[in-house]
Amino acid sequence: MSNATKLLDPAFHGAGQRVGTEIWRIENFQPVPLPKSEYGKFYMGDSYIVLQTTPGKGGAYLYDIHFWIGKDTSQDEAGAAAIKTVELDAVLGGRAVQHREIQGHESDKFLAYFKPCIIPLEGGVASGFKKAEDEVFETRLYVCKGKRVVRLKQVPFARSSLNHDDVFILDSEHKIYQFNGANSNIQERAKALEVIQFLKEKYHEGKCDVAIVDDGKLDTESDSGEFWVLLGGFAPIGKKASSEDDVVPEKIPAKLYR
């Protein structure tokens, strides 16, 4: 038995023994396996380790380890994720490729593991998690970008978050609305519909209604009227403001700590 195996964190027991995705969330600086039902959810206040195992030649496995850093995670938790990534790589014989994923700037490779997209959510372990039966549905507004790989970002639930250039998803308790900005791309509109179907099945048990709202078209008796009421009433929306998500970050080496 190797020293790496002897020092194996119990959370990594059996890791990389099958093809597919395995995820751990950092809680109190330790990796905790994430239930498969939670795959795709990433809380902004947390850090995660994602292991992707794929078949290689001769029956061997190929490994990619990604550590995802939420925008609100602490430096200590982010550091713990990096350290535990190195430990997991050692357990796998040092054969894994390590990737650092920053919220909002994830690699296409990472995003492709989650169909149709990852769902970034406010909060994290430090702020506490409610049990499912205690949760009250929270209406959320997302901006949906990407023609091939979808990038979904939660934005403030306010009319001021809308613009004419993007596609937005408003997820309310009984209906999911897709708002198509007048200048939005047809491919992004189609991808947003895939996301809506995913949200409907995952969070509404397939039982909620879906509505399309087109920018500039207001009918107070229709779905668009309901949509604007949820946002406090119809009013002209502003131009898209540049944000940190429009800035392309420096390329980060795929393999670290070697």
Automatic annotation (TrEMBL):
GO terms assigned for molecular function: actin filament binding
Taxonomic classification: Eukaryota, Viridiplantae, Streptophyta, Embryophyta, Tracheophyta
InterPro entries (UniProt xref): ADF-H/Gelsolin-like_dom_sf (IPR029006), Gelsolin-like_dom (IPR007123), Villin/Gelsolin (IPR007122)
Organism the protein comes from: Punica granatum (Pomegranate)
Keywords per UniProt: Repeat
Biological-process GO terms, alphabetical: actin filament severing
Metal-binding among keywords: no
Domain Gelsolin-like, first and last residues per copy: 29-111, 150-217
Pfam families in UniProt: Gelsolin (PF00626)
Protein name per UniProt: Gelsolin-like domain-containing protein
Gene3D superfamilies: Severin (3.40.20.10)
SMART domains for this protein: GEL (SM00262)
